[in-house]
């Protein structure tokens, strides 16, 4: 038997339509098998809090994994953020190795079984309704944003919804990215080397409702480089539902979004996702959930992460002139869901295209983990997991801090504040915003 696999990791489709997928006895048996292998390896001890929790349970057991009570498995499941880094970057026993470990999707399966059995946090589930929440909060954006910063309101939110009062929460905008794009279409540079390209920007719920500036920056950069763009947002990619194990709901979202984007693909448009979690869903998770749907495969093949797309332009046609240096340099965090796309450090590659680029690249988990890091009981752990990232960002001494994941970026800033407030920037940037700034576009 080989010690580990030298081949690229291969993921099996998620068998969510098979009744055995939800059989808790079979799930626990598979968890016992996987946990026994993980206990003997321990390469993932510093990725997230799932593995320390697992190893603590095993070390406290009188009979290693066999002595761990199956009811304690939930502690391990609850700490998994589905970042996929153990599968993509650490585990030597993923398929095609005969042991065929897929730790994140096993945690997903456990959550799906709990959800099917009616065991769920009904209050926490409301945070996964990003479209409903974004539309409602956008209608009263000034009030919603004021409440986010009000200590009394945050105390109530903590008591009612278990959202830690200290955790960063994004603001909302009444003028969504879709509205802004319709009102202000940047002029396409016909002299750019890449003129003739067409791309549809999948706005994502975060860029549409919480940070439209990411999308407007991307549109401006692409227009400068000759790319005609459209902004489309049919609905959320479903990542929040995936986090809670509602795979059927994700499949529903996938079909709706694919139906909206594929007509553009048929007309020669590329698809660009503005946030890495959403790019990961379109490229990798959706094809595993709906492996026999040709529409999903076609969309997956046409999808780019935004930094990946800019780098592709630079390599194939060359960029339009006009980039200028950003004094002070950039500390850029490579988000977990970017790394899980197996495309390399595209945000860093893009920022290196800026003249006199002065980068500090940080490739480690921020600790935030999607919505996981905002909840009471998780927030302090999220800060602990992200502390090495915050420390590296401070030590870099750069003027800008950037992350492809907007929530991770602000979480890093919060971690920096706790280490050295004097060396902490006011906020974090998305790399495409800094690239637009280097072009003088914002």
From TrEMBL:
<keyword id="KW-0479">Metal-binding</keyword>
<feature type="domain" description="Cysteine-rich">
    <location>
        <begin position="330"/>
        <end position="406"/>
    </location>
</feature>
<keyword id="KW-0411">Iron-sulfur</keyword>
<protein>
    <submittedName>
        <fullName>Heterodisulfide reductase-related iron-sulfur binding cluster</fullName>
    </submittedName>
</protein>
<keyword id="KW-0408">Iron</keyword>
<keyword id="KW-0004">4Fe-4S</keyword>
<keyword id="KW-0677">Repeat</keyword>
<dbReference type="Pfam" id="PF02754">
    <property type="entry name" value="CCG"/>
</dbReference>
<feature type="domain" description="Cysteine-rich">
    <location>
        <begin position="200"/>
        <end position="283"/>
    </location>
</feature>
<dbReference type="InterPro" id="IPR004017">
    <property type="entry name" value="Cys_rich_dom"/>
</dbReference>
């Amino acid at each position: 038997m080989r010690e580990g696999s030298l081949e690229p990791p291969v993921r099996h489709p998620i068998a969510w339509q098979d009744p055995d997928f939800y059989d808790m006895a079979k799930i626990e048996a598979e968890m016992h098998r996987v946990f026994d292998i993980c206990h003997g390896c321990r390469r993932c001890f510093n990725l997230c809090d799932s593995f320390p929790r697992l190893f603590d349970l095993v070390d406290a057991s009188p009979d290693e994994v066999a002595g761990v009570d199956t009811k304690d498995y939930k502690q391990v499941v609850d700490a998994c953020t589905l970042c996929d880094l153990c599968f993509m970057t650490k585990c030597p026993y993923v398929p095609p190795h005969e042991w065929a470990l897929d730790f994140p999707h096993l945690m997903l399966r456990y959550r799906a079984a709990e959800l099917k059995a009616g065991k769920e946090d009904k209050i926490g589930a409301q945070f996964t309704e990003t479209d409903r929440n974004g539309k409602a909060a956008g209608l009263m954006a000034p009030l919603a944003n004021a409440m986010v910063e009000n200590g009394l309101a945050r105390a109530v939110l903590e008591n009612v919804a278990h959202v830690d009062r200290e955790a960063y929460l994004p603001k909302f905008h009444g003028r969504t990215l879709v509205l802004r794009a319709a009102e202000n279409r940047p002029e396409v540079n016909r002299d750019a080397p890449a003129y003739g390209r067409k791309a549809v920007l999948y706005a994502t719920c975060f860029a549409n409702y919480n940070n439209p500036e990411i999308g407007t920056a991307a549109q401006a950069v692409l227009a400068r480089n000759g790319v005609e763009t459209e902004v489309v947002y049919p609905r959320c990619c479903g990542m929040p539902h995936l986090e809670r194990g509602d795979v059927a709901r994700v499949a529903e979202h996938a079909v709706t979004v694919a139906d909206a984007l594929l007509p553009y693909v048929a007309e020669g448009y590329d698809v660009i996702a503005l946030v890495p979690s959403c790019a990961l869903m379109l490229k990798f998770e959706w094809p595993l959930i709906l492996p026999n749907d040709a529409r999903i495969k076609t969309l997956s093949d046409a999808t780019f992460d935004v930094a990946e797309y800019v780098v592709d332009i630079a390599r194939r046609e060359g960029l339009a002139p006009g980039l200028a240096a950003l004094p002070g340099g950039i500390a850029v965090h490579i988000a977990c869901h970017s790394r899980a796309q197996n495309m390399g450090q595209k945000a860093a590659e893009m920022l290196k295209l800026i003249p006199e680029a002065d980068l500090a690249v940080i490739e480690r988990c921020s600790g935030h983990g999607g919505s996981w890091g905002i909840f009471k009981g998780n927030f302090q752990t999220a800060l602990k997991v992200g502390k090495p990232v915050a420390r590296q960002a401070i030590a870099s001494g750069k003027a800008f801090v950037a992350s492809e994941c907007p929530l991770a970026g602000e979480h890093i800033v919060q971690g920096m504040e706790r280490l050295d407030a004097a060396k902490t920037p006011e906020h974090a940037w998305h790399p495409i915003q800094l690239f637009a700034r280097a072009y003088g576009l914002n």
